[in-house]
């Protein structure tokens, strides 16, 4: 089904690019993945 495929592609884009790679001003203009890594280094 084309609709289900489109939904799957959009969800993948949001999860991979928007949530993980896009820089966020509230995180000091770093990606959430980089922020998470930095946080874990500080708490280890």
Automatic annotation (TrEMBL):
<dbReference type="InterPro" id="IPR001584">
    <property type="entry name" value="Integrase_cat-core"/>
</dbReference>
<feature type="domain" description="Integrase catalytic">
    <location>
        <begin position="2"/>
        <end position="38"/>
    </location>
</feature>
<dbReference type="Pfam" id="PF13333">
    <property type="entry name" value="rve_2"/>
</dbReference>
<dbReference type="GO" id="GO:0015074">
    <property type="term" value="P:DNA integration"/>
</dbReference>
<protein>
    <submittedName>
        <fullName>IS3 family transposase</fullName>
    </submittedName>
</protein>
């Amino acid at each position: 089904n084309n609709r289900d495929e489109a939904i799957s592609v959009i969800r993948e884009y949001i999860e991979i690019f928007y949530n993980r790679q896009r820089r966020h001003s509230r995180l000091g203009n770093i990606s959430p993945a980089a922020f998470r890594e930095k946080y874990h280094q500080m708490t280890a």
